[in-house]
Design a protein that fits this description.
Structural class: alpha/beta
Shape: elongated
Protein name: V-type ATP synthase beta chain
Helix content: 25-40%
Function: Produces ATP from ADP in the presence of a proton gradient across the membrane. The V-type beta chain is a regulatory subunit.
Number of domains: 3
Domain ATP synthase A/B type C-terminal: 355-453
InterPro entries: ATP-synt_VA_C, ATPase_a/bsu_AS, ATPase_F1/V1/A1_a/bsu_N, ATPase_F1/V1/A1_a/bsu_nucl-bd, P-loop_NTPase, V-ATPase_su_B/beta
Mean pLDDT: 92
Radius of gyration: 25 Å
CATH topology of the largest domain: Rossmann fold
Strand content: 15-25%
Number of helices: 12
CATH class of the largest domain: Alpha Beta
Low-confidence stretches: none
Pfam family, one: ATP-synt_ab
């Protein structure tokens, strides 16, 4: 029998202190009935003797301490899951948000989940094609990987997220592919953009969307990525699907963590974020991967906007430690009209070599990738030299590198948000651009590959 308490002693921000409680456990789900009969929900954050600290998901406004009733449910926050969730839109707490019927659950799962046991992990080594050249060729995404996108305020990360959700697919696989899209703290206009884009392009037919709006209580943002990942794990490991989880914006999630930490009067860490920010982020990111003996997988693309474009800020800094690389959006490229504005030089996918090559993409993938990186870096240096000394100071070869760099940014990186290139098209475009340079400069590619792929007459 559930006990009911009227012993609230304090409400501070999204937190509520309940005294004289018995048998309450950490992470336990809580029902809060206001004096007007309204029902809200919460979760136990901390238990100390007969006191329990509860975080209120819907916010504390209107709570009368004397007349509000609190019931501890004896179970953690859970989610009803089903394969029928594909094609549907939910709010940040997993409640149906579209005009469709309620989901008939196939299972009820604890949203907290846990990281995959390292002994059970299968190594990520299967290529995922996003249709974006700067990712597929130069920073390859692999099934089971976690590859974040580092953006900045005002940069088009929402367009990039929608493009990946539309275009991503696992090549040469008969298994089903699904996208779980989780948005945290986005504006109503952004939510409308995602819903409209997914519906118009048909991406909604293979997607599950969770939308937590900026107008929703910040406390709900803590639950949104957990709910999304619980759905992804069910589809992957129970239904055998390849699942790509796109989460935007992780910065809003971390801001919500900081708000709770401040309300708990905890000693702040760097820039006011809690000292356990690394641990908390790892509980989310480490839920990506593959399990030995199971066909499904969970691949993550978390998107975060770096405050003041500072890559040393705690959020991108800690994210980079936990994940396997990063895709960096560049403001200078964006101002030039290059979309998506991916800066390939500081971007990195630590598993790119595992998902490319003969039998996965093409045998010329790695050599052309290395050559493009080298040529682009040399071309950037030549352009900087021309700014200082003038173009007349450049050699004939330097001018070829400058031409390569300009075309590389304009044609290869700047493909637009609605161009879906196969990996073969991307590799062929790479060879076309490399043909601008003298053959003697292509030192990272073997002669037999140059004979086979380099366009004739160059």
């Amino acid at each position: 029998m559930l006990k009911e308490y009227r012993t609230i002693s304090e409400v501070v921000g999204p937190l509520m202190m309940v005294e004289q409680v018995e048998g309450v456990k950490y992470d336990e789900l809580v029902e809060i009935q206001l004096q007007n009969g309204e029902l809200r929900h919460g979760q136990v954050l901390e238990v100390n003797e007969d006191k329990a600290m509860v975080q209120i998901f819907e916010g504390p406004s209107g709570i009368n301490i004397r007349d509000t009733k609190v019931r501890f449910r004896g179970k953690p926050l859970s989610l009803n899951v089903s394969e029928d969730m594909i094609g549907r839109i939910f709010d940040g707490m997993g409640n149906v948000m579209d005009d469709g019927p309620e989901i008939l659950p196939e299972a009820t799962l604890d949203v907290n989940g846990q990281a995959i046991n390292p002994v059970s992990r299968d190594y990520p080594d299967e290529f995922i094609q996003t249709g974006i050249s700067a990712i597929d060729h130069l920073n390859t995404l692999v099934r089971g990987q976690k590859l974040p996108v580092f953006s900045g305020s005002g940069l088009p990360h929402k367009e990039l997220a929608a493009q990946i959700a539309r275009q991503a697919t696992v090549l040469n696989s008969d298994e089903k592919f699904a996208v779980v899209f989780a948005a945290m703290g986005i504006t109503f206009d952004e939510a409308e953009y995602f819903m409209e884009d997914f519906r118009k392009t048909g991406a909604i037919d293979r997607s599950v969307m969770f939308l937590n709006l900026a107008s929703d209580p910040a406390i709900e943002r803590i639950a949104t990525p957990k709910i999304a990942l619980t759905t992804a794990e069910y589809l992957a490991f129970e239904k055998g699907m390849h699942v790509l989880v796109i989460m935007t914006d992780m910065t809003n999630y971390c801001e919500a963590l900081r708000e709770i930490s401040a309300a708990r009067r905890e000693v702040p860490g760097r820039r006011g974020y809690p000292g356990y920010l690394y641990t908390n982020l790892s509980t989310i990111y480490e839920r990506a991967g593959r399990i030995v003996g199971k066909p499904g997988s969970v691949t993550q693309i978390p998107i975060l906007s770096m405050p003041e474009d500072d890559i040393t800020h705690p959020i991108p800094d800690l994210t980079g430690y936990i994940t396997e690389g990063q895709i960096i959006l560049d403001r200078a490229l964006d101002k030039q009209g290059i979309q998506p504005p991916i800066n390939v030089l500081p971007s990195l996918s630590r598993l790119k070599d595992k998902g490319s090559g003969e039998g996965k993409t093409r045998k010329d993938h790695a050599p052309t990738m290395n050559q493009l990186f080298a040529a682009y870096a040399t071309g950037k240096q030549a352009k900087e030299l021309a700014v200082v000394l003038g173009e007349s100071a450049l050699s004939k070869t330097d001018k070829k590198y400058v031409e390569f760099t300009e075309r590389f940014e304009r044609e290869y990186v700047g493909q637009g948000f609605y161009t879906n290139r196969s990996i073969q098209e991307t590799l062929d475009l790479g060879w076309e651009l490399l043909s601008i340079l003298p053959r003697t400069e292509l030192k990272r590619i073997k002669d037999e590959l140059l004979d086979e792929y380099l366009p004739e007459g160059e």
